[in-house]
């Protein structure tokens, strides 16, 4: 059965802890591939592998693992599945006030407070941060009681002080403001997720949202800061990047497998998104791997 709205995920802290920390081997965390949200902020470290992720309205392709911080009630999906080939995944979930309200107002916590506030748009961290924190994250998972909390705060402090990051939905994604927006926009996101290889018309998504086409276009742009065409093209381009990196298909085959029905339009759109042609991207990706 296809999901039509984001699933609310109930999260319970580990016994004897104020937050949750889980380790999944390879593709064990298959529920992450479903569209879901929760009030807890979520830190996800993927050890190795590659795949697609969608956080808010931003679709991305990651390689050599991933490190992301996802804000409270920010819908997300697709970090790992059976095709990711990751070694493991560590997921930390905590409420914004998990240490109480007053501690976040202290001067020592100012940078971490700013980090958690910025996570409302979703944050992806760069390669240097991933490498520097991998052992610390594993040590935190193995630790218990106060030692676990201290190690977690040390990790948050590193993240709060790095400049090697990118905010995925910077100030323009308002999905968490109202439940009705949450339901409607995720109905659309799931439709694109399931149908991106086919032709998707404005008429069908406007009907899905129970809106006229002009109203839908204004609504979608306000929520996501993108036109619907831009969003669909981005989803298709990210899928093509994954295929270029992982499958021995011709570029022409990848064009059609990604939902584009015009090869020259695919090339043009790919270059606009990546500043490279598909053949350049594949060649450079292979050189990096080798």
Explain this structure:
It contains ten helices and eleven strands. The chain is globular, with a radius of gyration of 20 Å. It has two domains: 7-167, Jelly Rolls (Sandwich); 196-289, Arc Repressor Mutant, subunit A, CATH 1.10.10.60. Helix content is 44%, strand content 16%. Helix 1 packs across helix 3, helix 2 (127-142) packs antiparallel against helix 3 and helix 5 (202-208) packs across helix 6. A hairpin with a 2-residue loop joins strand 5 and strand 6 (58-62). It has a six-stranded antiparallel sheet with strand order 2-9-4-7-10-11, with helices on one face. A three-stranded antiparallel sheet has the order 6-5-8, covered by helices on one side. The chain is α+β, with helices and mostly antiparallel strands and 290 residues long. One of its GO terms (molecular function) is sequence-specific DNA binding. InterPro entries: Homeodomain-like_sf, HTH_AraC, HTH_AraC-typ_CS, RmlC-like_jellyroll, RmlC_Cupin_sf, Tscrpt_reg_AraC-type_HTH.
Give me some keywords for this one:
Arc Repressor Mutant, subunit A; 2 domains; six-stranded antiparallel beta sheet; 10 helices; DNA-binding transcription factor activity; transcription regulation; Homeodomain-like_sf; Helix-turn-helix domain protein
What is the first-to-last residue Cα distance?
Answer: 41 Å
The number of E-state strands comes to 11
In sequence order, what are the helices and strands, one letter per element? EEEEEEEEEHEHHEHHHHHHH
Determine the CATH superfamily of the largest domain. Jelly Rolls
- Beta-strand content: 15-25%
Number of helices: 10
Residues in helices, as a percent range: 40-55%
- Radius of gyration over C-alpha positions, nearest whole angstrom: 20 Å
